[in-house]
Amino acid sequence: MSTIKRVAVAAVAVMAVAAAPSATAAPAYKCASSTKDIDDSGYDGPWPDNWKVTVRACAARSGGTVYAYAEVKWDGPVFREVDDPTIFDGAKLRSQIKQSREGTDPVVVERDFPVLEERLEDSTSNANYDGHYRTPTISLRAGPGVLADSVLFLDWHGDGRGYQRHDYTASPTV
């Protein structure tokens, strides 16, 4: 191979390496989950009405930025109606990033996801209310010892009690 060809091949190889996108690994999330059996306080009839709700809070760190999201899965009862929009007056999942401290962990950022109400009231064609929802990711530049947490707020239609708070297990610190 001539010297000019070797220089040209080397130059093309250097340009290809320089133009290739750098591969950055996705941050490794640390998650924790817990499950609660929640009674529909707006229904007092003869049929089963409890909802088994699992929430998983996840946090990851990439450099100085912390990322968090939550997943909620529910196993609701088989109801009287398909896609009943009157089960709740409101439902939302609050995703939080907290600074881990001795005592109560202070919230440094939080975001509510009220789209959960629509998802919870959506059933299968057999009126079975099972489903899942994953929040978008929230993020914050933060120092060490930060975790993700989630709170489920349910306002059952007709019970007159407003939003009831359901706390779940927080993620490990990142």
Overview of this structure, please?
By secondary structure, the protein is mostly beta strands. The chain contains 2 helices and 9 strands; from the N terminus they run αβββββαββββ. The strands form 2 sheets. Strands 1, 2, 3, 6 and 7 form a 5-stranded antiparallel β-sheet that branches. Strands 5-4-8-9 form a 4-stranded antiparallel β-sheet. About 10% of the residues have low confidence.
**Span between N and C termini?**
54 Å
Largest sheet: 5 strands, antiparallel
- Would you report the number of β strands? 9
Percent of sequence in beta strands? over 45%
Mean of residue pLDDT values: 87
- Shape, principal axes of CA atoms: elongated
Rg value: 24 Å
Total DSSP helices = 2
Low-confidence stretches: 6-23
The SSE order reads HEEEEEHEEEE
